[in-house]
């Protein structure tokens, strides 16, 4: 829902071209802890009047106030779109090709990555539309083109040249709207195909981190080695254009050893992201699960500053208590679940 | 300087395509009022970990802390650019054409407006390069194209069709890089040509407001009538793609009647922007001169919330005191000039 998207500053495949939620909110109406109601801005697209409260509430996870109205900016629908899918012999080659594509100046609408495990799952368990394509089960980039029809034609021919040095294995360019939908459906169905093969009684832990794009191949490779060493079945999907990726790990929630392994795996991924100057949360905020990591990521000065803001506007800590930060010692508020 | 750009969340002609300063700052290092130092974020382009302190400090005009380090995102230089200049019989027609261009989905790099007064000044007082073009002295749109060479060709032919219903008077499309530079130079020199014709002893009051794009023609027309009725010489330049415009008004700073007139003129322009759900500051923040209007724009709840944040992190009001808000009654801080 839009409210959740605002409160977590979420984003997805189109963020590469359009940015994240914070970039599309013009103003918010917010009910504060003391019951007063404010509106953060008026209607213009551009504004530099006073503190940017809009961006302070976006991503604050409801801890500074309850958002009751949201005014969004609209984007013009591009005249045309198209899709290409390109597989590579390794994650390194795919990441290098992605970097070259980003630097080329081609205005891609999205630039996504799926690893060989995810491609295998798609090949075997995708919908009928998805299985019309004989997918190559190796690290794969999904490109969305958007713009005028003429511009897209030019972009496609440039892309062919740009990826050539990275030993592409298979290249699919959509020849019509049906093929475009079929190709992109593989990306859309990624999570659902994983859910559909999850054994009875198993759970799936899906988490994301983001790193500078130059470190993306390295962290994906190391995270995959890690989950594989721990004997866990996991796939990787990446918003590679933003240096952001998700690992979905399956585990038996009733098996203690499994539980420890998956926790370890997720924890190590976050530590590794921090070592690479990354973030423990690219697009799903902090909630309860990542509170400890937030301190590791930003340091006590930034956390103390955030808490000072929180304390000033919600002295009883009644707004979504226990999210983002622990309640202060002695607080009478009850943590939300 | 970059520091000033960050602290005022400033922007200019390229904001239509690229957004404002807040969209390009990845993290900030800030010295707080108590002497502690924080870093707002790490390096990834995308991040949803904790409160968005980056956007809180951007545009805070140094009132929440002193920014000492800034990490910026870079944009890829487009493969090619070009420029077109189109004049119209009235501001209404120019604004309607602009709206149609925005909604067409063509990815313009910039979409600027100059009124007939500014075009006259450019024609007579521009540099040699600018005077190579015989400008039409009527309301004029300046378009910057950016993208691949092929895409730009397609965009230019679409633009010709889009503006046709609005009775364009003169259309210049740059045929080579020299013409592109010459045409855009007229926009770049706008402010300097105004300064160069300012009579000895006169001052120029340049201010900006922003409104929803649908109201832009109306507010420009009314502001021009207003300054003209008051007998003031004024030109209008607009970042029309963002609903944002500047009026530059000349006045004799030693003449009290002139001073009253120009104050009235600027004050009325801001009231009018607020009536149209606009903002008193599109891109130059609040400073000292617009403090009163900020309250009118946002209401006491939003201002009180901002002051609560300020008070919590700078209890002695020592950070750029007197900017954005007045000092609290009884404060020992001395207002900055």
Automatic annotation (TrEMBL), chains A, B:
Domain of life where this protein originates: Eukaryota
FAD-binding PCMH-type domain boundaries: 1-77
Keywords for this protein: FAD, Flavoprotein, Oxidoreductase
Similarity section: Belongs to the FAD-binding oxidoreductase/transferase type 4 family.
GO CC terms in record: mitochondrion
GO molecular function: D-lactate dehydrogenase (cytochrome) activity; D-lactate dehydrogenase (NAD+) activity; FAD binding
GO biological process: lactate catabolic process
Entries under SUPFAM superfamilies matching the protein: FAD-binding/transporter-associated domain-like (SSF56176), FAD-linked oxidases, C-terminal domain (SSF55103)
EC number: 1.1.2.4
Protein name: D-lactate dehydrogenase (cytochrome)
One Pfam family it belongs to: FAD-oxidase_C
Names of the cofactor(s): FAD
Organism: Colletotrichum karsti
Enzyme class: oxidoreductase
Catalytic activity: (R)-lactate + 2 Fe(III)-[cytochrome c] = 2 Fe(II)-[cytochrome c] + pyruvate + 2 H(+)
InterPro entries (alphabetical): FAD-bd_oxidored_4_C (IPR004113), FAD-bd_PCMH (IPR016166), FAD-bd_PCMH-like_sf (IPR036318), FAD-bd_PCMH_sub2 (IPR016169), FAD-linked_Oxase-like_C (IPR016164), Oxid_FAD_bind_N (IPR006094), Vanillyl_alc_oxidase_C-sub2 (IPR016171)
């Amino acid at each position: 829902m839009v409210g959740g998207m605002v409160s977590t500053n979420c984003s997805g495949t189109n963020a590469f071209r359009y940015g994240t939620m914070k970039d599309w909110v013009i103003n918010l109406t917010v009910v504060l802890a003391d019951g007063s109601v404010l509106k953060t801005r008026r209607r213009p697209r551009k504004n530099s009047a006073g503190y940017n409260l809009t961006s302070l509430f976006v991503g604050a996870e409801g801890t500074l106030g309850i958002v009751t109205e949201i005014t969004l900016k609209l984007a013009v629908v591009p005249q045309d779109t198209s899709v290409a899918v390109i597989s590579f012999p390794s994650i390194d080659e795919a990441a290098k090709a992605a970097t070259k594509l980003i630097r080329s100046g081609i205005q891609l609408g999205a630039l996504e990555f799926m690893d060989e495990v995810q491609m295998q799952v798609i090949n075997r368990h995708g919908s009928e539309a998805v299985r019309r394509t004989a997918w190559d089960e190796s690290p794969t980039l999904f490109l969305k083109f958007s713009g005028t029809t003429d511009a897209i034609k030019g972009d496609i021919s440039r892309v062919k040249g740009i990826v050539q040095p990275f030993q592409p294995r298979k290249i699919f360019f959509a020849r019509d709207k049906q093929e475009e939908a079929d190709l992109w459906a593989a990306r859309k169905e990624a999570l659902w195909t994983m859910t559909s093969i999850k054994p009875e009684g198993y759970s799936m832990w899906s988490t994301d981190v983001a790193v500078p794009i130059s470190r993306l191949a390295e962290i994906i490779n190391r995270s995959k080695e890690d989950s594989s060493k721990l004997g866990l079945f996991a796939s990787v999907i990446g918003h590679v254009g933003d240096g952001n990726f998700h690992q979905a790990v399956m585990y038996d929630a009733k098996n203690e050893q499994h539980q420890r392994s998956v926790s370890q795996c997720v924890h190590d991924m976050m530590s590794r992201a921090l070592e690479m100057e990354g973030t423990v949360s690219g697009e799903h905020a902090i909630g309860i699960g990542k509170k400890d990591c937030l301190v590791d990521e930003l340091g006590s000065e930034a956390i103390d500053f955030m808490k000072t803001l929180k304390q000033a506007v919600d002295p009883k800590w009644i707004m979504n208590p226990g999210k983002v930060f622990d309640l202060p010692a002695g607080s009478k508020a009850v943590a939300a679940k």
